[in-house]
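Quick one, probably user error.
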């Protein structure tokens, strides 16, 4: 999206966050969620190093998270077995603290339903991904919702706020 489109998206999101249909976690609460998380599913993870999902997944792995890629079109990402669906991954590896979504907004309601059905701890729609129906589905099931934020950027907030000289390794 260009700068004007991005600015408009933020204006819409900010207005809806203030009085919107679903309460979203703010930056501080998003960072706290990541500080507590251990297992993250990256829905839409890509094996292509040029894709944002590839870089973010690598960042999360480098910072100590147990990350599982979800993508029906690849066998593995960052040396980790990819699963075609969230349900398949949960059946094989267990539930996720965070379902981090790198898919177009129109695909997110089904992902939200699957996150709810598999007992996920939270639904996180990545930077540029806004879908209030998906947020509503997750919220009504009791999942915290983060929308239009990047897990890597929010993790850096944790590291930047650390007063003890943390090296950035998630523990």
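Nope, works fine. Designed sequence:
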């Amino acid at each position: 999206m260009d700068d004007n489109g991005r600015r408009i998206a933020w204006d819409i999101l900010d207005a809806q966050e203030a009085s919107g249909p679903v309460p979203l976690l703010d930056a501080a609460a998003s960072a706290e969620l990541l500080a507590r998380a251990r297992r993250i599913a990256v829905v839409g993870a890509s094996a292509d190093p040029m894709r944002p999902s590839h870089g973010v997944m690598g960042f999360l792995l480098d910072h100590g998270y147990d990350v599982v890629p979800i993508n029906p079109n690849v066998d593995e990402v960052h040396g980790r077995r990819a699963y075609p669906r969230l349900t398949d991954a949960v059946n094989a590896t267990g539930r996720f603290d965070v379902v981090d979504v790198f898919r177009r907004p129109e695909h997110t309601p089904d992902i939200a339903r699957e996150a709810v059905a598999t007992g996920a701890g939270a639904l996180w729609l990545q930077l540029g991904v806004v879908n209030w129906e998906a947020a509503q589905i997750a919220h009504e099931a009791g999942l915290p919702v983060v929308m239009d934020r990047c897990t890597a950027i929010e993790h850096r907030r944790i590291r930047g706020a650390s007063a003890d000289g943390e090296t950035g390794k998630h523990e």
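The two ends are 35 Å apart (CA to CA).
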